[in-house]
Amino acid sequence: MNTLRIWALMALLVSIGFATGNATAEDAEFDFRFDEPNDGEGSVDPESTVELKVTIENFLDEPREYELFITNSNDLESNGLDVWWSNDGQDDLSSEATSLPAVDVADNSIRSGITVTVSATDSALYGTYNVNVKCRDKDNSAPEENKQVLDLTVNVNEKAGVSLEIDGEGSTEGSVDIGGETTYQIKVNNDGNKQDTISLSTSSNDWDASFSDDSITIDAFSSQVVTLTIEAENNVEYGDSDELTITAGSGNDDNIDTTLDLTTFVRVYYGIGLTPTSSDVAGQPGDSVNFNFKILNKWSESVSYEIVKVDMYQGTPDNTVTDWQYQDMSPGTLDAYEESSSAKIQIGISSGADAGDVVTVVVKGKVSGDNDDIGSIQLEIEISVQGEYNVQIVLPQSDMISLDAGKTVSISQYVKVKNFADVSDLVDITANWEVGGNDWVLTEPDSITIEAGGEKPIYLSVKAPDAEAGNQAMLKIRVQSNGDTSKFDETTITFQVNSAASTTGPETEKLEEEGGMPQSTIMGLVGLVLILGLGTAAVYGLQQKSKGAFGGSEATADDFSDEWAGMEGAPEASAPMAPPQPQAPPPAAPMAPPQPQAPPPPAATPPPPAAAPPSTAAVPETAPPPAATPPPPAATPTILTVTVPDGVMAGQQIQIKAPTGQLVNVKVPEGCGPGSQFKIQI
């Protein structure tokens, strides 16, 4: 009986053992554990990351799929830590996820390298944190009942930091009365991730300074305000100052500290500080321009202020301008120690101002009604006048001038400069030989001022060398705006030595100073007699010669034939006349060709006198005069009445053409002017 009981007990124990073995096998289908070598622990600095690894081992004879979770990511984030799965043991993950929905592990295998990344932000607090991770068998019918959890450990390392600043809207510059005191509110910041005890001290100061608390304990990433008191001595004077440096040091790290500099001034009685936001402005003639200022009240009570004009001048203080307008746009009131940026004055630029003008305005900031100007401040500002500049050289027709050997020609009425701007301009003029010119004489031109839209001649003279006819030189003339040096114009004129008695080109008021026909020559010619009926032909020939003086082939409104249009009997320059006699048409009048039915043979035409060679402008080769009309005898004097052209004065030389075709240089007698007449005889 006892034996039977023993066997029954043994059978029961065996059955219990089998049952217990089966239950253990079910609970140990997989193992979720730390990966070597860190065993689930790591350290990280603020603004850095650390990686922690875990492993899954599958004990079953079939592959399984597992789910992994970070269960306390929100709590970690509130402490400045970001966590995510960065690797599933197979592939790097493209997104920062807090769960892995499917990690495959083969039968009886291990999946390692599964990684959790922990990032400590700049606001991560010092301390130790647990990262809670969970793994469950996704293929199990009750996965939540067959799960395993781990706590990964992250240590955030300490970081110390300290900074100082003026609290609120205060300034690092303050003021104090003589023998008085002033205070600064200093904000002390613990920029570290751990509570810190910060010490405060001062240096470099002559006046007494003290803190309300020179050692303060501040939580991580927190601030505290302390009061600094400055005491001025009794022997200081108005306008004196004291500079002070505050030093704040970390108690957590002796190598961490910071400084803040302060300046304290002795308050000035009714003192005004005035600073322009710009020292100069620019505007067009007639514009109104504004100057803005920062204005500071340095006294311990409110004051009314104004900005008054002291002087306004151009160039030097004795050159006062009166046609510019001044207006204070912002008289107002400042509270004690208040600084404002609303102070403004307005300057009205004269409509008659010239571009390039610079006017200095002297202003004074002062307390309104204070006739003694105690604590006032005076400064200078400048206003520049702007304008669109445009200067151009003006030539009547040609860029070629012929003149006699050894003769001087002034070309002031030939070369001109026009100011196309809306403001007057100072024009700089230069002239240089570009080709040749070594043996030519050049008078340098001066700078000239030209009104808006005006035109003036360039006073420049050229003397030809004693050279053979045909000698040339090229002169380059440049005009440049003084208001805007980028605006200029250039031209090149070719000068050519002509035969000794056939100078062409313009004659100007400068000619009388540099050369011309002697008065005795003109008086000798007055004794000659001119047939009055031939005066028209002489003037007409002169007009045609003038039209081609600078190489042009046709007359224009700018032709210098206008200079000689006032001669008695001459037609208007704008309406060329036909030649008076068909037997001698001028080249410029093709509408009146010579009659071909009776041309005399060339041998029948006696040559003109040696002293009066024919002009090619008067007698074309294809149309000689008829044989029946011989030239006047050389011994017969000719009288010509000459009307002085516009722009020509007494003593200047003009050129006329005699009926024979001869070119004659004539000097205008004394007492004659534009429109007056005198007689010569040839």
Please tell me the total number of domains.
Answer: 5
Spans where pLDDT lies below 50 across 5 or more residues: 1-26, 501-629
Largest sheet: 5 strands, antiparallel
Class from helix and strand fractions = mainly beta
Shape call: elongated
Proportion in β-strands: 35-45%
What integer value in Å does the Rg equal?
54 Å
What's this, in brief?
With 682 residues, the protein is mainly beta. The protein is built from five helices and 43 strands.
Structural commentary:
By secondary structure, the protein is mainly beta. It has five domains: 27-156, Immunoglobulins (Immunoglobulin-like); 162-266, Sandwich (Immunoglobulin-like), CATH 2.60.40; 272-385, Immunoglobulins (Immunoglobulin-like); 391-514, Immunoglobulin-like; 516-581 and 611-682, no CATH class. Helices cover 8% and strands 43% of the residues. It has five helices and 43 strands. A five-stranded antiparallel sheet has the order 1-3-8-5-6. It has a five-stranded mixed sheet with strand order 2-10-9-4-7, with no helix packed on it. The chain has a five-stranded mixed sheet with strand order 12-19-18-14-16, with no helix packed on it. The longest helix has 26 residues, at 2-27. Mean pLDDT is 76; it is low at 1-26 and 501-629.
